[in-house]
Amino acid sequence: MKKADFLLTLLGSLLQEKKTRLSIDRAKDLFPKARSSYFRNMKEVLEFTMPGGQPLFRRFTEDEIEFISLNKSFIKEYIPEGEDNIFNLQALMKAGRLMDNSLMKTVLSDIKDFYQINGKAKEINEKFYLLSHLDSLSEDEIYSDLLASLLNNKMINFNYSEKSYEGYSPLSICQHRDALYLLAFKGTFSKDNIKTFKLSRFESVEITDSVFKYPGKWNVENYFENSSGIISGEKNVACIRVYRESRRLIKEKSYFNKTLIENNDLYDEYELVFSSSDEFLGQLFVYAQDIEIVSPTDLKEDFINKAKQALSVNDDEVAS
User: Which pLDDT score is estimated for 78?
Assistant: First the structure.
């Protein structure tokens, strides 16, 4: 188990039910699959200090039982009160996995940065969306600057696909298939003012001194509600039937905004919501041999034309 996951699990157990202490034996039970690294991680975590130099954790014995507890000032200073602000373990686990990435060690250089994130659990939830393959974050200065600007709410100037952009406010880093994307806006925040940038196409990034207020009404999950991929927009609905081996593959894919409406021995029938026809067709075409588009008619025609174009390129008789 990585150190950040260990730390966050420990913090979560102490804070979720507002417990003030945890026995060492109980702490061991939190990590059944990490017993080999438990003592090493515990030793290092117990050495963590708060920004003022005070220890984050305290270890003590009572009635021959060994306990650990959190410094009360940590709870007072960094864990907001109120039902809506209770420690969000799931959101912080995202930050924790990022912290474990070697790239992030330069961005979140000490425990003070981690504290600053703690009181912003909702923001972390919006800033990092559907990141299942964090290894995609290579050790690159550009990625480091993008993440630093995102975590610190700093505007950025950048060069992207041979074009220059200035004064953009980063909102979220999200993943589609195996690629990472940045959502950002310029000027006044609005849903219609959001642009999508593929991280691998950034050529340079400059973090400015301008700090922007992260929009509290931003909800990345709602933004993608009507999309079938990374592009959000007007809602369109399609009905498709999936045959043979692709039935299992489509069922497993999370990037299809789909509802199963029929299942029989021959096919699965889905209703799918999408916002970009080109992107949606590209996704479906991976399974073209097993896909029947029932509706709408114009999507079906575009699908057939795409198949004909692919055939014309690959069919030797047609190509000649």
Answer: 52
CA-based nearest residue to 147, from 220, 222, 89, 94: 94
- 175-206 per-position pLDDT tens digit: 766 577 899 999 999 988 999 898 888 999 99
Instruction: Write the burial class of residue 177 (CB in 10 Å: 0-12 exposed, 13-18 middle, 19+ buried).
Output: exposed
Q: Are 274 and 228 in contact (CB under 8 A)?
A: yes
Distance CA 283, CA 288 (A): 9
What digits encode the pLDDT tens for the residues 81-122? 543 333 333 444 444 444 444 434 444 444 344 444 444 545
The 3-class SS string of 2-16 reads CHHHHHHHHHHHHHH
* pLDDT classification of 268: cutoffs 50, 70, 90: very high
Report pLDDT for 228. 55
Give the pTM.
0.50
Q: Among positive and negative, which fits the CA dihedral 117, 123, 128, 130?
A: positive
Mean pLDDT within 293-308:
92
pLDDT band per the 50, 70, 90 thresholds, residue 209: very high
CB-based contact 259:239 (threshold 8 Å)? no
| Phi, psi angles (nearest 5°) of residue 233 | 175, -150
- What is the set of domains in the chain, with CATH numbers? 3-86 (1.10.10), 100-218 (no CATH), 236-319 (no CATH)
